[in-house]
Structures are given as C-alpha cells and as structure tokens.
Amino acid sequence: MRKTFKLDELECANCGAKMEAAIKKIDGVVDAKVTFMTQKLVVEADDARFDEIIDEAQAICRKIEPDCEIVR
Amino acid sequence: MNKKLRRWRKRIVIALVLFALIFALTELLPLSNWLGGERNAVYVEFALYLIPYAIAGYDVLLKAARNIKNGQLFDENFLMAVATIGAFSLVFFPDSGPHMAEGAAVMLFYQVGELFQQYAVGKSRKSIAAMMDIAPDFANVRNTNGDLEQIDPDSVAVGSEIVVKPGERVPIDGVVVEGSSQLDTAALTGESVPRAIEAGSEVVSGCVNLTGLLVIKTTKPFGESTVSRILELVENAAEKKAHTENFITRFARYYTPAVCGVALVLALLPPLLGFGALSDWVFRGLTFLVVSCPCALVISVPLSFFGGIGGASKLGILIKGSNYLESLASVDTVVFDKTGTLTSGTFGVVAVHPAEGVKSDRLLELAAHAEAYSDHPIAMSVKQAYGARIDETRVSNASEVSGRGVQAKIDGASVSVGNDKLMASLDIDAHNCELVGTMLHVAENGKYLGHIVIADMVKDDAAKTIADLHATGVTKTVMLTGDAEEVARSVASKLGLDEFHAKLLPQDKVAEVERLLDEESKKGRLAFVGDGINDAPVLTRADIGIAMGAMGSDAAIEAADIVLMDDKPSNIAKAIRLSRKTMGIVWQNIVFALGVKLAMLVLAAVGIANMWMAVFADVGVAILAILNAMRCMNVKKFQ
C-alpha cells in the first residue's frame, strides 16, 4: 500500500532527511519519502503491518523533531 | 505569521533588548570599581547575560537535551547548546577573557536566523499554495425541485449537468450544453486573453467563467478532471528530488560530524602539544561549532526548486519534478515533432501573391466568394483568411470542378479558382511560386490575377522560439516530421532550424531521437517536444519529454516530464530560461554558503575570527541564501 500523510510542524529540512532515512529502515517499508517543502510523507509498505509501521514512523519523527506529527 | 511564530518573535525581541541593555551597561559603567575587583564584575556580568540567554534559548537547550537522550547527536540544537555553554564556561578559565556576551549573542542570533527561516519557508509554502488555489470547492447542481444546490464536486456523476455562474470556477471538465461566455484560462495556461465559448464547446476545470451563465454536461469525474490532475502533479513534483538536492542532504550528513570532530581536535591537540593556552584553543573549537550548522544550505536548495516549480506553474508550465527542472537547465538539443508544436496542424493561408496591378484583398475576396458554397478545408481556410462576411447574392452559377477547383460568376464576371490543372485547362498562364504548399490560382474572365498559398500553418511564435532557444545556449534544434521533404525543408529554413528529418514513421522518430541521444555530450541533455498525440514512446525515451497544448489531454500529461498547458512553443524557451535561473540561484547559494563557511573555519582555526564573526556569518548567510532562493518564485519577467 502506498499512502501520503501530512507532516505537521515539520520545520527543519535536515530533520526531514533524517526521518526519511530512518523510516526507510523500518521492517516492511518498501519506500519512504519525506518532502520538506510540502510537509508530506509518502510511505509504501506492507499492507499487513501498515498501521504498525506508521506508528513506528511517528515515534521516529517525534524523536527527531518533538513537535512533528503524522496526520492520519 | 502564525501564533507560534509571533510568540517566538516576542521572546527574541525581549531577549535582544535585555542583551543590548546589559551590553551597554557592562561596557560603559565602571563595574569593577563599584564591585571591588575585576573578578567580581565578571561574575555579575555572567549572571546578567544568563538572563537573555535563557529567555532566547531555553527551548534550544531543552531540545538538545532531549535529542541527546534519543541518540540524535550533531543536530543544530546540540551544536548551539555546546558552543554557547562552552562560551559561558570559559569564565572558569582565569587566564581567558570573559566570553559570556558572545555566548548569549550566538544563541540570540541563531534564534533570529531560525525564526526568519521558518517565516520564509511558511511564506513560500503559502504563496505556492495560493498559486495553486484553482480547485473549486463546490459544483452547482439542480435538485429535484429545480433549485440550484451547491454540492461537493467529488460526488457529481459523469454525465450530470452542472451550472457555472459568472465569476465561478468550472469545477469539472465537460461540454457546454447551454449558454455562451468568456473563459479566463490564466490559472491553467498563463494566457491572459479570455477564450470565447458557446454550446458544444469543451471546457476544462480550473477556468473562471467571466460573463454568462453556463450549463455544462460533465465528461469526467472530479478526480480525473484537469484541475485535480494538475494539482496532484505539482504537489508531487517536490518528491522527485534533484541530484543537487540529494547531494546537499548527503553532504550535510558528513559535514556536521566532520566539523565537530575537527573542533574537538582543534580544542585539545595544540594545547596538549604545548602550543598556547587551553582556553584559547577551546574558544577556537567552539567557534568552529557555531560555523558547522548546515541549515542555510539544506533549506535554501529545496526552497529554490519548490519556488521554481511553483513559478513555472504560474506560466502554464508544469514541471513534474525537481530532477526535470535540473535537467532542463542543461538542455542543449531540442527536438520538435513538427505538427502541433511548430505548426498548428491545420491548414491556413500562408501567402497571397497577386499579379501586378491586383490588390491582395481583391484576390482573397474573389477566392472566398467563389468558394462560398464549399466546405472543403482549403475553402474554409480561404474564407477564414478573408475574414469579412461573404455576400452570397453576388455569387451565381457556382460549380465544382472535381480535383481541380471551383468556378463561379461573381458580380457577373466569371471567376476560376483552383490548381495548375484547372488553369491549364482554361489556357491561362499561371505562375507557380517558390513557397511550398497547395497553390490556389485565381483568374477572372480568363485573366490571371495571382495565387494564394495554403499550407500547414507555422505558429506565430515558432521562429522566435527557435531564435530564443539559440540565444539561451541550445546548440541544436531538430525537427522531425512525417511530411514530405520539401514541406519540411521550407519550414526548417523559414524557422532557422539546424536539422530536419522528413518522411518519418512514428517508429523512425524513436530511432532518430536515439541517434541524437548517442551524439549528446555527457553533460548536455536532449528535450523532445511533442503534442502528446501518438508520441508517448518518444516522450519517454528523451532525457526530457515536453508535451504541449496539453490542456485536457490525459495521455500527454501522463507521458511527459514537462507539460505546457497552452500550445505556444515560446513557452519552451521560457521554461529553459526559468530552469537556468533556478539552477543559477541554487549554485549561487551552494558556493556562497560553503565559501563563507570554509573561510570562517580557516579564520577561526588560526584565531582571527571570533564567535561574533562566526554567528553573524552563519545567520547572515542563512538569511541571504533564503532571500535569494525566494527569487525563484518570481516569474514576472517571463510573463
């Protein structure tokens, strides 16, 4: 499944790049992309684990930028 | 500016004012005399400077602490926290001068830079969103009582009738059933002249209805309508990142840890080897940390691309990704598929050559009247060129001479209009002309009056486009066509094209483009321009596929990398110039930011630059780079 999310309060370009790299490493993620300018996250991942994957991605984003929230 | 930014700004202003007061106080007043000694004065200053420092930077310190806990070293908060805390703690080295003012200033100006960055990015996001604000939020549909009701355009079924009032945007693609009006297509094509429409005309979503009430029968669902597709395309464009963008991200990943490492070595190694005081070298190391933040660069590059893509869409040029914008800037070969790009693909009068003593208007008038009853494409183009109303009462005995032309009596005189064969059969000596196309000779009462040349019309701005392309540095312009050699030669020489290849079948065009791609230099890129009809394979094969006149054509939007919404070839030159400008700004920023940073690193290492200089350089570069990047959105001079 491929889905696009808005990343609220993504405010540092370098953090976006870090998030992208970290989300790509989550088990079951085929591809992930964080676009700083449009504040968007595109995740392509395993259907079965999709919700869990997004939870993990949210945790990663919080770690890198505490206010950053994946809008679902 | 939103609430959060405003609160932040207030905090920085308060801290700045306090900082200035304390700075003036400590510089002007003889504190050490009052407090009985130099050391005491320093401790008082230390306490005083902590106040603006904490007000301005407590969040940075908190974030740094949290990030260390989360294992995120080397982010900007960490760097700033270490640099400023370090500067403050130099007070404990009795042999070093106090550096509290620097510590507080670094935090303050860092925050000023950050605030500016967020403000600028937010503004760009907003202005591009506004540029793209062409999506209508409702459609007017008649309900069972016959009243108009505003409903979500997403829920309108294909084939339903919707009503668009003057001043409203057309929400869904369709065909006009009732009413006539003027449509403003500027949001889609950048073209400011309104387009007249009437019952039977196709309309695309996103246009603004200017004058009359329209009833439109929808031909597509909202999600597949032009406006939705365009929005999707532009929104996703930023996802396809350019090489330069990836390069900067990768660079930032290594740059910051590397500079931190060097700072550590710089602070510890020389004093251990016995060169100078520890406090001196620690201070130089801290200055290094201030310079090591790559923020300006990391933000200004995507900001430039985003601005460039947004600005282009304002001109009716849709670029599907930053990578295409980047390649477009290095295009040195442009290949055109003739029909639909350089020529309009419809017949038209290209020249009127009257015989001596005959006015060209007279020639057109006679030809148009003789063809009054014909609806052959050639007759239609003559009538269109004539322009005025045709008075059919002047025409009698009109007849068609199959394969040759027409004959008629006009105002009593017998007029013949047709090709060489017709003239030969009438024993009239016709002059052929050097132009290529269909000749329409005109004779009145057996006397030759001249000829009209009809051909596939070269677009008005085609010649200018080729000249513009050459002026922007495109070295080779090539035309491919399935037409006959002479037609191709005449168009090519008229437009000043460098190369042309005629009589090509669609598969030959792919082969020809592949051959040209092989000839490309390593750095140069080849762009193929087509009208989106039957040329999808070539569009995908070229480095950059440009489809034009694509308003409403899904296949073209799908296959191309760059879509020109209207059918003016001059937009290609505009797109290339715009991409060059964007790439120019990107490289200016990279070179400028890195140059200043490197210079500061060297100056800091040898002890010339202090923290004041470092922080001003850092924030200054960030602000200038962002302001420079925001220029990408400005496309006024291309309009």
UniProtKB/TrEMBL annotation, chain A:
Question: Which ranges carry the HMA domain?
Answer: 1-69
Pfam name, any one: HMA
According to the UniProt entry, its GO molecular function terms are: metal ion binding
Membrane-spanning ranges: none
InterPro entries reported in the protein's UniProt record: HMA_dom, HMA_dom_sf
Q: What is this protein called?
A: Heavy metal transporter
| Organism, as annotated | Slackia isoflavoniconvertens
From TrEMBL, chain B:
A GO molecular function annotation here is:
metal ion binding
Chief place of localization: membrane
**Residue stretches spanning the membrane:** 12-35, 41-61, 254-275, 281-306, 584-605, 611-630
According to the lineage, what is the superkingdom?
Answer: Bacteria
Keyword annotations for this protein?
A: ATP-binding, Cell membrane, Membrane, Metal-binding, Nucleotide-binding, Translocase, Transmembrane, Transmembrane helix
* Pfam families hit by this protein: E1-E2_ATPase, Hydrolase
The yes or no answer to whether the keyword Hydrolase is present is: no
Q: Which GO terms describe its cellular component?
A: plasma membrane
Q: How does it sit in the membrane?
A: Multi-pass membrane protein
Q: Where is the P-type ATPase A domain?
A: 135-235
Q: Where in the cell? A: Cell membrane
The entry sums up its family as follows: Belongs to the cation transport ATPase (P-type) (TC 3.A.3) family. Type IB subfamily.
**Entry's NCBIfam families?**
ATPase-IB2_Cd, ATPase-IB_hvy, ATPase_P-type
Quote the protein name from its UniProt record: Cadmium-translocating P-type ATPase
Source organism per entry reads Slackia isoflavoniconvertens
